[in-house]
């Protein structure tokens, strides 16, 4: 696992850790079952505070990308289906809210496109 933190970059260090691990898990660079370093170990290797890495790990666990097995460590989870389910649930809630607000389908889609561009830095 290779992570690079760019302090001058606009994203918070925990978000950079989260995004890089998530991308490496999605791409298969970090295979399902791969054991991640301990919070403290990764923090030391990146020159970050342990709380910063812990925050990234909590977000990744919430997203279903990793799973913590107590004292046995933290591992890359088989997260594709969990992530797809969560995304579908969020999309359904958004679609219902947009309809209640009286937006057309095109207006609702434009809102999603804008949000995705902002989220992915485009």
End-to-end gap: 26 Å
Residues in β-strands, percent: 5-15%
Find the CATH topology of the largest domain.
Answer: Arc Repressor Mutant, subunit A
The name of the CATH architecture of the largest domain is Orthogonal Bundle
Structural class: mainly alpha
Tell me the CATH superfamily of the largest domain: Winged helix-like DNA-binding domain superfamily/Winged helix DNA-binding domain
DSSP helix count? 5
| Radius of gyration based on Cα positions | 17 Å
Number of DSSP-assigned strands? 3
Protein architecture, described:
With 122 residues, the chain is mostly helical. The chain has two domains: 13-77, Orthogonal Bundle (Arc Repressor Mutant, subunit A), CATH 1.10.10; 81-120, no CATH class. The chain has helices spanning 13-27, 39-46, 50-62, 80-100, 105-120; strands spanning 35-36, 66-68, 74-76. A three-stranded antiparallel sheet has the order 1-3-2. The radius of gyration is 17 Å and the shape is globular.
Secondary-structure map:
Blueprint: H1 13-27, E1 35-36, H2 39-46, H3 50-62, E2 66-68, E3 74-76, H4 80-100, H5 105-120
Antiparallel strand pairs: 1-3, 2-3
Features:
122 residues, mainly alpha, Arc Repressor Mutant, subunit A, three-stranded antiparallel beta sheet, 5 helices, 3 strands, 7% strand, globular
Briefly say what this structure is.
The protein is mainly alpha-helical and 122 residues long.
């Amino acid at each position: 696992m290779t992570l690079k933190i760019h302090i001058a970059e606009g994203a918070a260090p925990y978000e950079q850790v989260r995004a890089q691990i998530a991308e490496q898990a999605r791409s298969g660079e970090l295979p399902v079952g791969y054991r991640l370093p301990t919070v403290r170990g990764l923090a030391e290797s990146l020159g970050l505070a342990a709380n910063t890495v812990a925050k990234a790990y909590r977000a990744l666990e919430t997203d279903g990308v990793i799973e913590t097995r107590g004292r046995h460590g933290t591992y890359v989870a088989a997260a594709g289906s969990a992530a797809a389910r969560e995304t579908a649930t969020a999309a359904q809630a958004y679609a219902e809210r947009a309809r209640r607000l009286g937006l057309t389908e095109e207006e609702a889609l434009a809102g999603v496109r804008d949000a995705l561009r902002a989220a992915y830095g485009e």
